[in-house]
């Protein structure tokens, strides 16, 4: 729970006038030293818990479905996560040094009013991810209910709600309520939850892998299957946007990582914990997914191999009371065993999904929405707004196929977030040289007040080159391939470097952020 605030008093280290500023509330305040308790383990556990989620599990499958072999897919995932680790660590530094969250840090580059632009863009992406994770968790819940009560899957007699079956809509709503309920317990509850969920997720994932491999009598044939690319040019056409998508997967956290590092004991703890946690967890869990899927294809010879990359589909076939395609009997003998496995599977998916959802997709947008009206919107209110938008986005449509998920969703939003990351990195490390006037970040008439036009122009110009390619990708624009299509696969990289360079040049003539003389 948050420390109780003293009404009418500024927090430790801030002048008295900050307490009455419309840009201040307790959730956006700098974290006091007494609450900066996160250790190396806490940060590593955070990333292990966030990385061990179903979208991560499905990443390698999506890349293999696009034509890569297993090692090409894992190499792409590894390289993408090592690249995105760089802006994550760079933007993490001010969070630990000053104890401030992402939307407050953004005020130093975009201005106290202008910071709402990157905050809302980041928040909308998080709402989409919140919806995706909630939908996946709801489908796992539906799988368990069908295993216990097969008639549940026939509720509604085929009627759909906004493209979602009635059973799926029910479990989506139930899982949504579970996520929203956790929000009321605050940031410390997230730390405690991540600490015990991380090892639990690893144990359950390892158990599933061992069981499937033993049942299949080996790792399966996928490790011998070559890629489908005839030439290096064919591989490159898939590799580049896929690499961008891997960077885009955690591009959200590369912005709002100060929301977590503000609770760190020191720079060494957060840097070491994140370096140990992010790349290793993403590579390890993706490799585990390849092994499980490959062995599953050996067992379930009559199943559609493209669906076995979805662990919910795989678990539904394992726990089914009827024989899956290609087998004469159910995979699990006895109702007791089947229900126990179904329950453990639901527990694993639920813990993985909730830990990622709360940490990655609620904390940031809740702070971002609060930043728009700190006196009216608290962390909890911002979390509720996130949950509602997560429903309206209809996430089940974002997961329609690998092309839509990787090229439209991951690459598409990376075009928005790359420029923001470039601007923030340049501002803190090159323009401010790691020195911020923290009280003025909360003042209406401080050195960062209003809007920094240089940042907004750099953001727009950084996004602009990727817009035509994105519109072509989602089939809003027609026509043959052109130069814009060649730029779009590099969306995050293009946006980051264009915005960073333009912002650096523009700030040479700008006085924004300089000390006020009156």
Written account of the structure:
- The protein is mainly α.
- It has 20 helices and 2 strands.
- The chain has helices at 40-51, 54-65, 70-98, 102-110, 116-148, 166-183, 186-216, 232-249, 251-256, 258-261, 267-299, 311-318, 335-361, 363-372, 379-392, 402-431, 453-463, 467-473, 483-487, 491-507; strands spanning 160-161, 164-165.
- Strands 1-2 form a two-stranded antiparallel sheet.
- A hairpin with a 2-residue loop joins strand 1 (160-161) and strand 2 (164-165).
- The protein is globular, with a radius of gyration of 23 Å.
Task: Give a short overview.
The chain has 518 residues and is mostly helical.
Pick out its properties.
518 residues; 2 strands
Q: What strand order characterises the main sheet?
A: 1-2
Report the mean per-residue pLDDT as an integer: 87
Helix content: 55-70%
Number of E-state strands: 2
Rg, nearest Å: 23 Å
Work out the helix count.
20
Biggest beta sheet summary: 2 strands, antiparallel
Query: Segments where pLDDT lies below 50 for 5+ residues?
Result: 1-7
List the helices and strands and how they pair.
Blueprint: H1 40-51, H2 54-65, H3 70-98, H4 102-110, H5 116-148, E1 160-161, E2 164-165, H6 166-183, H7 186-216, H8 232-249, H9 251-256, H10 258-261, H11 267-299, H12 311-318, H13 335-361, H14 363-372, H15 379-392, H16 402-431, H17 453-463, H18 467-473, H19 483-487, H20 491-507
Antiparallel strand pairs: 1-2
